[in-house]
Amino acid sequence: MPSLELYGCWRSSASQRLQIGLRLKKLPFSYTPVSLDRGEQHRDWYRAINPRAELPTLVVDGEPWVQTLAILETLEETFPEQGHSLLPTTHRERRICRAIAEQINSSMQPLLLPARLRKPIIEAGGQTAATPLEPALQAGIRQHQLHALNDLNTWLASFSGPFCLDSSPTMADACVVPQLDAVMRLGLDLSPFERLVALHRHCQSLEAFAMAAPDQQPDAPNRSSV
Ligand SMILES: N[C@@H](CCC(=O)N[C@@H](CS)C(=O)NCC(=O)O)C(=O)O
Description:
The protein has nine helices and four strands; from the N terminus they run βαβαββααααααα. By secondary structure, it is of the alpha+beta class. The protein has two domains: about 5-85, Glutaredoxin (3-Layer(aba) Sandwich); about 90-210, Glutathione S-transferase Yfyf (Class Pi), Chain A, domain 2 (Up-down Bundle). The chain has a four-stranded mixed sheet, with helices on one face. Strand 1 (about 5-10), helix 1 and strand 2 form a beta-alpha-beta unit. Helix 1 (about 15-25) packs antiparallel against helix 7. The longest helix is centred in the middle third of the chain and has 24 residues, at about 135-155.
């Protein structure tokens, strides 16, 4: 078994994807928190591991792996017999599973506008964070996420469930659940999206998802004093 070291942050939804995937695959790993709030992703020690200053990084036998979808796919290819399969069995279901994961990865998560995008947008507007552009951005982010949640809810309602596709968790679930946690942190109400609410509840009943939840991480604010 290789040595697996996860560098992540409790509130990084991309880190949470790997937490879920590694646990579904039953692959033991160590966890090193990198604080987004303190900007630790920009520190020299972390840039030496990941020059793009993004989370997460999975260091596998000393080699840094980046981009969660590539990592989840590679874990599945490398350890096909270990734990749960992160991909369904048929070609059709694999395609849909990858499409759902990609929908989260490229059309929802980046448009929560993490600091590295928000700062240049505000600066390009010739303004500082305290100006009216900031509330407009906030409103736009929330509106986009609500539209995207509605589309995702409709899409997933066309599959039997209770996971994204059927009765087995896959990398689609490892991507959707962290995104739902992220939009709830933003204060969005998920209750109109019944399929998504049921999916989230069902996934939390599995240890792999429950242990990967943001508030369960050692660097989560409510746990820092424990
Ligand atoms: N597509 C990337 C997304 C990585 C990403 O956006 N990470 C965020 C945290 S969830 C980050 O590192 N943000 C740093 C910043 O905004 O400065 C992946 O799947 O790994």
